[in-house]
């Protein structure tokens, strides 16, 4: 794992982010990158995708484990927002007794919603749509 971390740090430095901090949490299979640089403001999501792609190439070549990449806590904050959205939609579905349609999300974010709604035994979730339009509908069980 040290070899993979060293390669990733080298790539980040070559990109011009010499002060970046990289930490790996092997137990939770996460790698966190923190770049204290105003240049990336507004570009965090795009840069995160680039780092994730680069990291996946490196780990595949080195036969390393797959890890989730987080840049400047962007993913952690996004996960919190998705969970909050799911709880609000669950509440709305319970109060209005109607289905609630969420906006399109990627597979990882939809999984977070499905997991969040499992704590509501009277609700169920369903992913519908194709590709970038795939989204979740939350509805009450019919009794």
Can you put this structure into words, describing what you see?
The chain is of the alpha+beta class and 143 residues long. The protein has two domains: 2-72, GMP Synthetase, Chain A, domain 3 (2-Layer Sandwich), CATH 3.30.300; 76-140, Ribosomal Protein S8, Chain: A, domain 1 (2-Layer Sandwich). 45% of the residues lie in helices and 20% in strands. A hairpin with a 4-residue loop joins strand 1 (21-25) and strand 2 (30-34). Helix 3 packs across helix 4. The radius of gyration is 19 Å and the shape is elongated. The model has no long low-confidence stretch (mean pLDDT 87).
Per the CATH scheme, the topology name of the largest domain is: GMP Synthetase, Chain A, domain 3
Q: Please tally the β strands and state the result.
A: 6
Q: Which strand order do you get reading across the main beta sheet?
A: 1-2-3
Which class best fits the helix and strand makeup?
A: alpha+beta
Q: Note the total helix count.
A: 4
Reported CATH architecture of the largest domain:
2-Layer Sandwich
The SSE order reads HEEHEHEHEE
- What Rg, in angstroms, do the CA atoms define? 19 Å
Query: How far apart are the first and last residues' alpha carbons, in Å?
Result: 52 Å
Low-confidence stretches: none
CATH class of the largest domain: Alpha Beta
Helix content: 40-55%
Number of domains: 2
Most strands sheet: 3 strands, mixed
Strand percent estimate: 15-25%
Mean pLDDT: 87
